[in-house]
Model the fold of this input.
Amino acid sequence: MSQLKMYRLFDTPVAEYELPEGYSFSHFDPVKDVHAWCECLRGGALIDGRTDEQAYRDEIINFHDITPEEDIWFLDYKGEHIGTATSFVHKATNIGDMHQVGIKNGFKGRGLAKYLSQIVLMTLRDRGVRFVSLTTGEGRVPAVKSYLSAGFLPVEYDFGMQKRWENVLRMFGMSEIQMLYEDGTPYKTIYADKTEAPLRIGVFGCGRGSIMVEYCLKADNAEAAALCDSDERYLASRRKQYGDGLRYYTDFDEFIKEDFDCVFLANYANDHAPYAIKALRAGKHVISEVLPCENLKEAVELIETVESSGKRYFFAENCCFLPAVKRITKIIRDGRLGKFEYAEGEYLHNCYADWCMHSHAQRDHWRNTMSAFFYCTHSIGPLIHSSGLRPVSVTGFEAPYNHRMYEMGAMGAPFAMEVITLEDGSFVKSLHGVSPSKYSLWYSFSGSRGVAETGRDAAGAGKTDVLYMDCDKVEDSGDGLEKDTDLRDGLSDAAGDFGHEGSDYYTFYQIVESINGNRQSDVIDVYEAMDMFLPGLYGFFSALEGGKPQAIPDLRDKAQRDAVRNDTRCTNPSKAGDMLLPSKTGGNPEIPDVIYEKLKAERNRRLEQQDKA
Done:
């Protein structure tokens, strides 16, 4: 689990204490003092079985900005080293660091840590640093108390930090404290007892939408206000499950008048854009399930509605927040992968057995008419979000039609692949579809310093709750180590097994925090949503032209929007008009009515079983 981070600003004076009789400070001697330094830290940071030399190398020598004989301090008692702290400056950022603070066993509990804090803070203040940073675990209660007493403030920098600090406040009997952003600017005052009213959310779509209601029941920053679904059977089932504390609607136009702050769209994937536009115009923030739109005309209208409404749009691409994927994102953003070079993503979902439920056994259901490229953001999304790069061109490839798609009544290809060039010239490969023989969810990222990837199902290594990492500390040094593969963080306990390996919880939590004003929340806006969707749409255009590469527009640019604002190309007859595309290259297959009759009979059988249960 990531540690707590704290900063000491210099807007208030550093407390100065007179050393008790017999105590003094001294500097570190790298020839004589390695063992003494480790002894001061045995009861704290170095409980991990390393030798003195290994610990010294890992914690001091591998920090290139540390000069041991200048930056390591000892607190001595009658000539014996009984405490230590390291004070150094990150030269690239001019941020001071209080590092490896420890008191030797036998001298703890005497309030000596404040003298080490004093010498570090005064040293770094005199060096003119912007502020002083440290990390620690909340389990080190005396240390945390000492740092708070020295004027350190908590930092909002990783998942769940505010919640963890609220728990610390309760533990220490503190009512409130100022929290900072990672750049040292003020975030907000946080309280042991929450004072913010939860965000009120309306849910459209009672199937997948129930995950948002479950989130609201579990989390303390949001509450479900209303549910809407045109299927009265679904709605009645949810009323029985959730009771009369929610309002229930079958009419979206009446539902959207309800008093809530944000709408969660979990309706049909090809209809998210029209309802997002309605909600934005009604003054609601929008959380949209995948996908953001169906064609370019919808994409432009949605973006321009977001821009003119003054409301926020969030894309709930949860694969970006799967356990290993979100850790890889942090590894990339921290620079530990080096310069981004290549990535792959796979979302192969064998839906053969349950397709009658997914498609409602309807010939014209969007799932039956979509191309293999349409449902693309589960594989493409993490590649875009983790790399932080925009797609600029794509070449698309389509697998041959197979018997499973025919028996499912689906007209598209079973799966598709996009090879996408990014804005810096690097490229990624995306593979996704609904009818491979086996399931596969996997991501791999390569950079100039190494590789980080998730486990693979076929290898029996688990899925995205496993991370493999081999990154050099210095590019081309060959000193790669499998480190930082602990995927737990401040939200892990709350997320648990909640929806898609906990990723739904992270997705919703960060969105709600962003609406509440946390600018460090990791969310996906409408422009990035299009960066995740357009490579699939243009990948299909490429496949239809025999694999010809296609330039992907940047819809942040109005001139590029103008060029495509009337482009209705898609596989949906109700939206495409005279730009209707076939569901696959080579034209739609002929599927007889008997296929749908068989699927409908199976669907009815399952529904009857559900009713009896």
The radius of gyration is 28 Å.
